[in-house]
Amino acid sequence: MARTSNFDQAQVHELLLQALETERGGIQVYTAAIKAAQNEDLKKEFQEYLEETRTHEEILTRVFQQLGMDTEEQSPGRMVVAHQGQSLVAAIEMAIENAEPAAAEIVAAECVVLAETKDHSNWELIGQVALKAKAEYAEALKQAYQAVEKDEDHHLYHTKGWARELWIQSLGFPAVLPPPEEVKQVETAIGAARAEQARDEMLERH
Questions:
Q1: Please, what's the b/e burial string for 74-90 (b: 16 or more CB within 10 A of its CB; e: otherwise)?
Q2: Average model confidence (pLDDT) for the chain?
Q3: How far apart are the C-alpha atoms of 166 and 36, rounded to whole Å?
Q4: Which H or E element spans position 150?
Q5: pTM of structure
Q6: Residues near 175 by Cβ (< 8 Å), separated by ≥ 6?
Q7: How many CA atoms lie within 13 A of 27 on its CB side?
Q8: pLDDT(50) > 90
Q9: What are the distances in angstroms from CA 124 to CA 2, 130, 144?
Protein backbone atom coordinates (compact mmCIF):
# COMPACT_ATOMS: atom_id res chain seq x y z
CA MET A 1 0.00 0.00 0.00
CA ALA A 2 1.31 3.47 -0.88
CA ARG A 3 2.35 5.67 2.02
CA THR A 4 0.43 8.94 2.29
CA SER A 5 2.15 12.20 1.40
CA ASN A 6 0.05 13.97 4.09
CA PHE A 7 1.65 12.14 7.01
CA ASP A 8 1.38 14.42 10.07
CA GLN A 9 4.27 13.38 12.28
CA ALA A 10 3.31 15.77 15.08
CA GLN A 11 -0.19 14.32 15.32
CA VAL A 12 1.12 10.74 15.29
CA HIS A 13 3.44 11.84 18.08
CA GLU A 14 0.41 13.15 19.99
CA LEU A 15 -1.51 9.90 19.44
CA LEU A 16 1.36 7.90 20.91
CA LEU A 17 1.64 10.19 23.93
CA GLN A 18 -2.08 9.76 24.59
CA ALA A 19 -1.90 6.01 24.00
CA LEU A 20 0.90 5.56 26.54
CA GLU A 21 -0.96 7.68 29.10
CA THR A 22 -4.13 5.66 28.47
CA GLU A 23 -2.29 2.43 29.25
CA ARG A 24 -0.82 3.90 32.42
CA GLY A 25 -4.24 5.13 33.48
CA GLY A 26 -5.70 1.73 32.63
CA ILE A 27 -3.33 0.07 35.08
CA GLN A 28 -4.69 2.31 37.83
CA VAL A 29 -8.32 1.79 36.76
CA TYR A 30 -7.97 -1.99 36.82
CA THR A 31 -6.20 -1.89 40.18
CA ALA A 32 -9.19 0.00 41.62
CA ALA A 33 -11.76 -2.12 39.76
CA ILE A 34 -10.35 -5.35 41.20
CA LYS A 35 -11.07 -4.01 44.70
CA ALA A 36 -14.70 -3.36 43.73
CA ALA A 37 -15.34 -6.68 41.93
CA GLN A 38 -17.62 -9.05 43.83
CA ASN A 39 -18.08 -11.76 41.21
CA GLU A 40 -15.04 -14.06 41.31
CA ASP A 41 -15.08 -14.58 37.52
CA LEU A 42 -15.09 -10.81 36.99
CA LYS A 43 -12.30 -10.29 39.51
CA LYS A 44 -10.20 -12.92 37.72
CA GLU A 45 -10.97 -11.24 34.39
CA PHE A 46 -9.89 -7.84 35.68
CA GLN A 47 -6.68 -9.32 37.08
CA GLU A 48 -5.88 -10.83 33.66
CA TYR A 49 -6.65 -7.52 31.94
CA LEU A 50 -4.43 -5.67 34.43
CA GLU A 51 -1.47 -7.89 33.53
CA GLU A 52 -2.17 -7.50 29.82
CA THR A 53 -2.42 -3.71 30.20
CA ARG A 54 0.97 -3.69 31.92
CA THR A 55 2.33 -5.61 28.92
CA HIS A 56 0.76 -3.09 26.53
CA GLU A 57 2.45 -0.26 28.43
CA GLU A 58 5.78 -2.07 28.05
CA ILE A 59 5.17 -2.59 24.32
CA LEU A 60 4.46 1.11 23.82
CA THR A 61 7.51 2.05 25.86
CA ARG A 62 9.61 0.01 23.43
CA VAL A 63 7.95 1.82 20.51
CA PHE A 64 8.94 5.14 22.09
CA GLN A 65 12.52 3.91 22.34
CA GLN A 66 12.50 2.82 18.69
CA LEU A 67 11.20 6.21 17.57
CA GLY A 68 13.47 8.23 19.87
CA MET A 69 10.52 9.63 21.84
CA ASP A 70 10.48 10.67 25.51
CA THR A 71 7.97 8.59 27.49
CA GLU A 72 7.53 11.45 29.98
CA GLU A 73 6.86 14.21 27.43
CA GLN A 74 3.67 16.08 28.19
CA SER A 75 1.08 17.62 25.88
CA PRO A 76 -2.34 19.22 26.47
CA GLY A 77 -4.01 16.08 25.10
CA ARG A 78 -1.95 13.79 27.29
CA MET A 79 -2.85 15.86 30.36
CA VAL A 80 -6.55 15.48 29.51
CA VAL A 81 -6.14 11.70 29.22
CA ALA A 82 -4.35 11.60 32.58
CA HIS A 83 -7.17 13.61 34.16
CA GLN A 84 -9.78 11.26 32.71
CA GLY A 85 -7.97 8.23 34.09
CA GLN A 86 -7.65 9.80 37.54
CA SER A 87 -11.35 10.68 37.46
CA LEU A 88 -12.31 7.07 36.70
CA VAL A 89 -10.19 5.81 39.58
CA ALA A 90 -11.77 8.42 41.88
CA ALA A 91 -15.25 7.34 40.75
CA ILE A 92 -14.54 3.69 41.62
CA GLU A 93 -13.07 4.65 44.99
CA MET A 94 -16.10 6.86 45.71
CA ALA A 95 -18.44 3.99 44.92
CA ILE A 96 -16.49 1.56 47.12
CA GLU A 97 -16.68 4.03 50.00
CA ASN A 98 -20.31 5.11 49.65
CA ALA A 99 -22.32 2.51 47.72
CA GLU A 100 -23.42 -1.04 48.31
CA PRO A 101 -20.84 -3.59 47.07
CA ALA A 102 -23.02 -4.68 44.12
CA ALA A 103 -23.47 -1.06 43.03
CA ALA A 104 -19.74 -0.35 43.34
CA GLU A 105 -19.07 -3.39 41.16
CA ILE A 106 -21.28 -1.94 38.43
CA VAL A 107 -19.49 1.41 38.67
CA ALA A 108 -16.15 -0.37 38.32
CA ALA A 109 -17.31 -2.25 35.21
CA GLU A 110 -18.66 0.96 33.66
CA CYS A 111 -15.43 2.82 34.39
CA VAL A 112 -13.43 0.03 32.75
CA VAL A 113 -15.68 0.29 29.68
CA LEU A 114 -15.02 4.04 29.48
CA ALA A 115 -11.26 3.55 29.83
CA GLU A 116 -11.20 0.71 27.30
CA THR A 117 -13.24 2.67 24.76
CA LYS A 118 -10.46 5.26 24.57
CA ASP A 119 -7.78 2.54 24.63
CA HIS A 120 -9.48 0.60 21.83
CA SER A 121 -9.77 3.76 19.73
CA ASN A 122 -6.08 4.56 20.25
CA TRP A 123 -5.02 1.16 18.95
CA GLU A 124 -7.38 1.32 15.97
CA LEU A 125 -5.68 4.59 15.02
CA ILE A 126 -2.22 3.13 15.62
CA GLY A 127 -3.24 0.36 13.22
CA GLN A 128 -4.07 3.02 10.63
CA VAL A 129 -0.67 4.64 11.13
CA ALA A 130 1.01 1.25 10.72
CA LEU A 131 -0.73 0.89 7.36
CA LYS A 132 -0.28 4.40 5.99
CA ALA A 133 2.62 6.23 7.66
CA LYS A 134 6.16 6.58 6.45
CA ALA A 135 8.31 3.51 6.79
CA GLU A 136 10.08 4.02 10.12
CA TYR A 137 6.77 4.66 11.93
CA ALA A 138 4.98 1.85 10.12
CA GLU A 139 7.65 -0.68 10.98
CA ALA A 140 7.74 0.32 14.65
CA LEU A 141 3.97 0.29 15.06
CA LYS A 142 2.94 -2.73 12.99
CA GLN A 143 4.43 -5.28 15.36
CA ALA A 144 3.05 -3.47 18.42
CA TYR A 145 -0.43 -3.28 16.90
CA GLN A 146 -0.48 -6.96 16.01
CA ALA A 147 0.60 -7.88 19.54
CA VAL A 148 -2.08 -5.79 21.24
CA GLU A 149 -5.12 -5.65 18.93
CA LYS A 150 -6.82 -8.88 20.02
CA ASP A 151 -6.41 -8.06 23.71
CA GLU A 152 -8.00 -4.66 23.22
CA ASP A 153 -11.03 -6.11 21.46
CA HIS A 154 -11.39 -8.68 24.23
CA HIS A 155 -11.15 -6.09 27.02
CA LEU A 156 -13.78 -3.75 25.55
CA TYR A 157 -16.44 -6.15 24.35
CA HIS A 158 -16.23 -8.51 27.32
CA THR A 159 -16.38 -5.75 29.92
CA LYS A 160 -19.36 -4.18 28.14
CA GLY A 161 -21.05 -7.55 28.51
CA TRP A 162 -20.23 -7.70 32.21
CA ALA A 163 -21.55 -4.17 32.80
CA ARG A 164 -24.80 -4.97 30.98
CA GLU A 165 -25.44 -8.23 32.85
CA LEU A 166 -24.58 -6.76 36.26
CA TRP A 167 -27.05 -3.95 35.61
CA ILE A 168 -29.73 -6.42 34.47
CA GLN A 169 -29.15 -8.48 37.61
CA SER A 170 -29.48 -5.36 39.77
CA LEU A 171 -32.83 -4.56 38.13
CA GLY A 172 -34.20 -7.92 39.24
CA PHE A 173 -34.23 -9.57 35.82
CA PRO A 174 -32.51 -12.82 34.79
CA ALA A 175 -28.85 -12.16 34.02
CA VAL A 176 -26.29 -14.29 32.20
CA LEU A 177 -23.08 -14.43 34.23
CA PRO A 178 -20.43 -14.79 32.96
CA PRO A 179 -21.85 -12.86 29.98
CA PRO A 180 -22.20 -14.51 26.57
CA GLU A 181 -19.33 -12.40 25.23
CA GLU A 182 -17.12 -14.27 27.67
CA VAL A 183 -18.48 -17.73 26.88
CA LYS A 184 -18.26 -17.16 23.11
CA GLN A 185 -14.80 -15.49 23.31
CA VAL A 186 -16.07 -12.45 21.40
CA GLU A 187 -13.37 -10.29 19.80
CA THR A 188 -15.29 -8.13 17.29
CA ALA A 189 -18.19 -5.68 17.37
CA ILE A 190 -20.20 -8.05 15.14
CA GLY A 191 -19.44 -10.93 17.48
CA ALA A 192 -20.56 -8.86 20.48
CA ALA A 193 -23.86 -8.02 18.78
CA ARG A 194 -24.45 -11.68 17.92
CA ALA A 195 -23.66 -12.77 21.48
CA GLU A 196 -26.15 -10.27 22.90
CA GLN A 197 -28.81 -11.39 20.43
CA ALA A 198 -28.20 -15.05 21.31
CA ARG A 199 -28.53 -14.13 25.00
CA ASP A 200 -31.96 -12.55 24.44
CA GLU A 201 -33.14 -15.51 22.37
CA MET A 202 -31.99 -17.96 25.06
CA LEU A 203 -33.84 -16.08 27.80
CA GLU A 204 -36.99 -15.84 25.67
CA ARG A 205 -37.00 -19.64 25.35
CA HIS A 206 -36.93 -19.90 29.13
A1: eeeebeebbebbeebbe
A2: 91
A3: 13
A4: helix 135-170
A5: 0.90
A6: 165, 166, 168, 169
A7: 14
A8: yes
A9: 19, 10, 12
